[in-house]
Amino acid sequence: MVTDKGQEQTWSYYYLERCCQRVAETYGREEWSEWTNGDYILLSRILFRKTRVQISPNTLKRIFGKIKTDARYYPQKATRDALAAYAGFGDWDQLVEAVAEEESLSEVEEPLIEEGLHQNVPEQNESPVPKRSVKRTLLWTGMSLLILLVLWAGWKISQGSTPKGTPSLICKNPLGENPHSAIFTVQTPHERADDYSLDFGDGKRTSVNPNTTVYNHYYEVPGRYQAVLIQGNEPLDSTTVYLPTQGWAATAYMMYDTSRVYPIDVPALFTGGKRTINTQELSQAGIDTNRTFFVEFTNAQQTGISGDNFELQTHLITTPDRTGIRCSQVDVRIMGESSNHMFVVTKPGCVYWSKLNFSEKGWSGRQEDLSFLGADFRRGGTLRLLVKNQQARLYINDRQVFESTYTHPLQQIYGISIRFSGVGTVSSLNLKDLNTGKMFRGSF
Which ranges does the record mark as transmembrane (predicted)? Predict the structure, then answer.
């Protein structure tokens, strides 16, 4: 087959465009020109889970044309293989063959073979360019060059508003013991003084100076956290920090005292009949039990249980009436690979403080009616969360109170946390995978 480097590049970009179309169809949003930064962050996570190949959100933006460059970005073979695999093909070569067959690109009308011209050999592992007639080849080449010219002109016009830097957030040491000092490197467009901030995922946030690249954060409570680089209210990039535990751990802290937490050393917690933390143990740890305080029980570990097909059942007793505690609330959080399920149950008169999250979907009692999350557990009660194929149902005292579907999968569960205002008791807890029947090792 006779070809030249320019023609090969034209065909390479043609197949890349078709690959992007198939990836967008698989992702569920075919108009990728309308994608936000959140879409690229989510797609990056999904691609890694599906293919185990890490493609950063910024690389995806280059591939799909969100970030403009002098010439259309063309990714390496491993990246193209991963995109093709996500779209349902074995690898890039299979995608090329399928596109060529579907669009009749391999039909031969008049082979382009002339004496004195040599046949170019495709690069190793590359799919051969389909044979074309002279007429059809010139037509496609001309159209492609015209498209590239238009894109280049549009890029030049937009240069006045396009940042030269590429926003990114990386944690150098994402896995650690509790406590953990995480080191983040941040890249923002230095030429612009936009409102950047860094949300560490544990309720703390800091503003970002475009001229500062390294940020440290001190994590004090075990669990899995999603740190996010934000511009205004729009997420630009994210990374995960994970502090696993050996079995169940207890941590206490006081309201309005954000500078300290108090690890509580309790032997045989939830394994030897110990189901709660008493006020004497809290006082010995440094908690002023005459003030408003919280006790959090955490079991953070890789479970092998799907966060999109599981059942959680637990029996709880919230704090009795005491100084500094009015709402007697309990928060339950299921930590997934890339997001969480979470709900806050309070006394009926305190549903203002209630919250509910299923992956990317969230509701707050401050803006919405969450009166169904009002329940008095001071004498005990049961909570049940049933998730099947990304459809979640929440039960309180054996009555279904809420149901919703969500889009972004949690994938594997990485832990559970239960937080009480004041002293609380966990009488029992069972978590199992609905597909495999696997039980959580921290069940009791």
Answer: 137-155
| C-alpha of 297 from chain center | 24
H helical segments located in 202-294: 279-285
Task: State the Cα–Cα distance between residues 292 and 419, nearest whole angstrom.
Answer: 13
Fill in the amino acid letter for 285: A
* Structure tokens that stand for 158 in this block: 């937009």
Phi, psi (degrees; rounded to nearest 5) at 131: -70, 140
Q: What is the DSSP string of 282-339?
A: HHHHT--TTS-EEEEEEEE-----BTTEEEEEEEEE-PPSBTTBSS--EEEEEEESS-
Contact 180, 221 (CB under 8 A): no
Closest CA to 193 of 181, 180, 203, 207: 207
Decide: helix, strand or coil at residue 363: strand
Which pTM does this prediction carry? 0.64
What is the 8-class DSSP label of residue 346? Answer: B
Q: Are 184 and 239 in contact (CB under 8 A)?
A: yes
Whether a cis peptide bond, with omega within 30° of 0, leads into 122 is no
**Domain architecture of the chain: domains with CATH:** 5-158 (no CATH), 168-243 (2.60.40.10), 249-433 (2.60.120.200)
Note the residue count of the chain: 444
Q: For residue 258, what pLDDT is reported?
A: 64
Q: How many CB atoms lie within 10 A of CB 278?
A: 12
How many Cβ atoms are within 10 Å of 56's Cβ, its own excluded?
A: 17
Cβ atoms 87, 99 nearer than 8 A: no
Q: Check residue 265 and give its pLDDT.
A: 87
Q: What is the mean pLDDT of each run of 10 residues along the chain (444 residues)?
A: 50 86 88 86 86 85 82 83 91 88 55 33 43 48 53 44 62 91 86 79 90 92 93 85 94 81 89 88 90 94 95 95 84 93 95 95 95 96 97 98 94 95 95 97 95
Distance CA 239, CA 336 (A): 13
Q: How many CB atoms lie within 10 A of CB 103?
A: 12
Reference 337, options 40, 86, 64, 52; nearest CA is 52
| Cβ–Cβ < 8 Å for 332, 308 | no
